[in-house]
Structure formats: structure tokens, C-alpha cells
Write a structure and sequence with these properties.
With 388 residues, this protein is an alpha/beta fold. It has helices spanning 24-39, 63-66, 68-71, 87-100, 120-124, 140-155, 159-173, 187-192, 220-223, 259-271, 276-279, 290-299, 308-313, 337-353; strands at residues 5-12, 48-52, 78-81, 106-114, 195-197, 200-201, 210-219, 231-239, 282-284, 367-374, 378-385. A hairpin with a 3-residue loop joins strand 10 (367-374) and strand 11.
């Protein structure tokens, strides 16, 4: 049986649209230093470093080789992970596996993105077939436009509900000192923002952010000696449904069972979770558009199919609601892509430690789910608990 693994330290930068004040290494070092201080350790105490970044989005290659000093990786074993939007989640999962296996007692997980280095959409479209698809590609916007339109047609949800979800996330983000966008907006403001691909508007979508997030993971013996309450990674699951890029763009037939349902079903069965909404105290979901929230809530079993918009309408997902979702403000408020999956786990851990400050949810948080999501319907899902 593998060793229990806990989050011992959390560190993240303040996230912004541009960081001309630092280079890549300096920005990464900010998060690493904070995580080590939080764990009461120095870089000498770290056995391995797991690193992630989406090189393509910044127009470079082998980012781990050029940021060795900033991440404290010199002469340490480790890996660089890149699984698209889920890269941060995959890095945390890899760190967990390295410690749970008994190979290492401590692992430093670092996710980062400096999107002021290159326009990411310019990189995204190069994945498309150049003679037909490339000029039509809308990136992630097209995916969420399809989701939103189908959801409205099938459930009775209206544009106002996606706008309200975005407003709730913005309200949370204003309480988060690290958030990139701290917007004071109304439903009317969201509906007045320009259309990207209907029904998706500018304020429905995540920004391009610069930032880094680091976690220190430790074995049970090591974690119990740390200065902070350990947050246990009780379980995790990864699933994906690979698809080909074909003519016609990103509008794909929906499978009968999604990768999210497969991952959630496996994790829930292993942990005896039969009522996710009742048994999970807080949710940090990787939601790049407020239109995606409705699908995610239903696929993760938070509510029945077609009912998520009703919970949003009742504002049940607020910090003081029965099902708090995205207390940090979520990916729609902060999106340094390589770090976004790590941030979801970090924010969930802070909720369990009761160290989330103004964004701390009202209920006593003993359990949390954090996720990462990306292309190929790739999902990484974490179940965090206060008790080992």
C-alpha cells in the first residue's frame, strides 16, 4: 500500500495581465519561496521537483531547462509535465505518485505561465489543419459556445444565468488578493459585453494571466512534523477522451458518457461518496467559462441533469451557500494556464486549513474537490480531506 501524501506548503504569486518587473525565473521563485516558507522547509529538504508549463503558449521549448535556478531544481531529479490545460493537475498528480510510491519523502510541484511573452491564441490556432480549419478556429471559445447553446436548448437556462454565475465568481475574486481580475460587475454588465461566439461574451471567458503556484507535498511522517495542518490528498483520478482534429472545427458529437463522469464515478466509488453535494464541502473546478459551470456541476454529480442553472439562480454556489463553488474566483478570474490546475488544489487546501482569508467559505470545510480540465476532454480530479 502506498504512503499517505499531504500538502505541507502552499505558495502563489499575485496574478496579473503583465509582469514586466520579473523574468520567468524570478516569477517562479516568488511562488517557490512562499511554499517552502509555508512548509517550514528549505530547498535542501526537497527530494524531487515536478514542473509544468505550456511552452507553446510562450514560443519557447524545454522551459524546465531555462528556469532551473528559479525553481530550485539544480541537481534534483524530477519531470516536466505538459498535458494542455490540465498540465497543473497532472503535475500535482505526478508529485503525489512520486511521494506515495515511497521513492521520495518530499516533492515540490511548480506550475507557471508568463503569457505576456507571446499571444497564446496565436499558438493555439497552429494546432488546426492549415488549409481549412485554421482560419475558422476560435480556440476554447467555440467549445464553450457549443456547450452554452446546447444547454439553453435542452434545459430552459437563459443567458442571465451564465451572467449571474460570472458575477458570483467576480464577487469571490474581489476577496482574493492573488486574483488577476477583481471586477465589480452586474448581470447587465456581462450581458452588455461584446459577443465572441454567441452565446459566449467577453466577460464569460477567462483572461490571459501571468503567475506561478507551488505546492510542497510530503509523506505522512514528514507532513506531521510540519508547522501547518496537513491537507491530505486522499485520492485522485485522471480520465480523458482523445479526439482527432477534423474538418468542421471544435464542434464534436457529445459522447454518451463523458470523461468527467468516468473520473468522478471512479473516485466516488472508491471513497464511499454517494451524495457529492452533501459530502463535499467546497469545490474548486477548472471552469474557463461561466457557461461551462452548468455542465461541470451536473457531470460531477453535484445536481441532476438540467438543474445546475436553478442552483445558480438561487445563488447556492456563493461562499455562504450550501454548495460553495470557485471561492477563489476561479479560472474566469485568474488563468496563468500552466499554473491554473495547481491553483485549484492550492485554493482547496487553503479552505481546509481555514487560511483563505476573506474568501473562506461559511461552512466548516473538511473535504474538498479540486479539478483540472483541458483538450481531449482531459480531466484530473483530486479529493482532499482534513483527516488522513
Amino acid at each position: 500500500m502506498g504512503d499517505r501524501v499531504a500538502i505541507m506548503g502552499v505558495g502563489q504569486t499575485d496574478h496579473r495581465y503583465m509582469r514586466p518587473d520579473v523574468n520567468h525565473e524570478e516569477m517562479i521563485h516568488e511562488a517557490v519561496r512562499l511554499a517552502l516558507e509555508d512548509a517550514g522547509l528549505t530547498i535542501r529538504d526537497i527530494d524531487t521537483v515536478i514542473f509544468d508549463n505550456m511552452d507553446l503558449f510562450e514560443g519557447h521549448y524545454l522551459a524546465d531547462a531555462m528556469t532551473v535556478d528559479g525553481a530550485g531544481m539544480y541537481l534534483k531529479p524530477g519531470l516536466k509535465m505538459n498535458t494542455g490545460g490540465t498540465s497543473g493537475g497532472t503535475a500535482v498528480a505526478t508529485g503525489w505518485q512520486h511521494v506515495a510510491s515511497g521513492l521520495f519523502e518530499t516533492a515540490l510541484v511548480v506550475g507557471w505561465q508568463k503569457q505576456d511573452a507571446s499571444p497564446s491564441i496565436g499558438s493555439l490556432v497552429t494546432a488546426r489543419e492549415p488549409l481549412y480549419d485554421r482560419e475558422l478556429a476560435a480556440g476554447a471559445v467555440g467549445i464553450f459556445a457549443t456547450m452554452g447553446l446546447q444547454y439553453m436548448q435542452e434545459t430552459g437556462c437563459r443567458e442571465e444565468h451564465a451572467a449571474l454565475a460570472r458575477v458570483i465568481m467576480a464577487d469571490n475574486a474581489r476577496k482574493n488578493p492573488h486574483a488577476h481580475l477583481k471586477l465589480e460587475i452586474t448581470v447587465e454588465d456581462v450581458l452588455a459585453s461584446r459577443v465572441l461566439v454567441w452565446p459566449v461574451r467577453l466577460l464569460h471567458m477567462s483572461p490571459t494571466s501571468c503567475g506561478a503556484c507551488a505546492l510542497v507535498l510530503g509523506s505522512e511522517a514528514r507532513a506531521r512534523k510540519g508547522p501547518k495542518t496537513p491537507v491530505w490528498i486522499r485520492d485522485l483520478e485522471t480520465a480523458h477522451r482523445e479526439v482527432s482534429v477534423f474538418r468542421g472545427g471544435c464542434v464534436e458529437p457529445r459522447p454518451q458518457v463523458s470523461a468527467i463522469e468516468v473520473a468522478a464515478g471512479r473516485l466516488y466509488r472508491r471513497n464511499g461518496i454517494t451524495d457529492p453535494a452533501g459530502q463535499i464541502d467546497v469545490w474548486e473546478l477548472y471552469t474557463p467559462s461561466s457557461w461551462a459551470l452548468f455542465h461541470w456541476m451536473e457531470l460531477f454529480g453535484i445536481c441532476e441533469k438540467g438543474q445546475a442553472w436553478r442552483l445558480v439562480e438561487k445563488e447556492a454556489i456563493r461562499l455562504d451557500g450550501p454548495i460553495p463553488i470557485e471561492p477563489s474566483g476561479g479560472v474566469v478570474s485568474t488563468n496563468p494556464i500552466g499554473a491554473s490546475g495547481v491553483i485549484r488544489v492550492a485554493e482547496a487546501a487553503l479552505q481546509i486549513r481555514k487560511e483563505a482569508g476573506e474568501r473562506q467559505v461559511a461552512k466548516d470545510v473538511k473535504t474538498a474537490v479540486a479539478t483540472a480540465w483541458g483538450a481531449g476532454s482531459w480531466i484530473v480530479m483530486f479529493y482532499l480531506t482534513r483527516e488522513a
